[in-house]
Design goal:
Layout: E1 10-15, E2 18-23, E3 29-31, H1 36-41, H2 53-60, E4 75-79, E5 85-89, E6 96-98, H3 102-106, H4 109-122
Antiparallel strand pairs: 1-2, 2-3, 3-6, 4-5, 5-6
The structure holds zinc ion (2 copies).
Length: about 120
């Protein structure tokens, strides 16, 4: 699979049995459509987000990227309240792409439930 942002190869990593595609260059991450149970297992998975948040912030400016899986244009999700979340979501497979450092932020415990709600809402 090819990173939709920097076009480098993405490698599959495994976190508690959940496969996540992570870019070998910019360290953006692509999550397949996740079930609620899978999301729960991802709690504390911030260790998989090893990229540089400054690199991530740069790639976060790249909009209108194709889904690395189905090649359709992903929706840019911007959720502002009560905290800002920006990521790309595929309208077809419901996968989600996070730039490096973003996922780390989102997995902070106090916002985790909210994140689950947002993902459910998108589905
Ligand atoms: Zn990349
Ligand atoms: Zn897709």
């Amino acid at each position: 699979m090819q990173c939709p942002k920097c076009l480098s190869d993405m490698t599959v990593i495994d976190y508690q049995g959940i496969e996540i595609d992570r870019c070998s260059d910019c360290f953006g991450m692509f999550f397949d459509h996740l079930e609620k149970e899978d999301l729960k297992a991802l709690e504390g998975a911030d260790s998989i987000d090893i990229g540089d948040e400054f690199v991530g912030a740069r790639f976060n400016e790249i909009l209108d990227v194709p889904c690395p899986k189905c090649n359709v244009k992903m929706d840019h999700v911007l959720h502002k309240e009560p905290f800002e979340i920006k990521f790309e979501s595929c309208p077809q497979c419901h996968g989600a792409y996070f730039d490096a450092g973003e996922f780390r932020d989102y997995m902070e415990e106090e916002i985790f439930d909210q994140f689950q709600d947002i993902v459910r809402h998108i589905e």
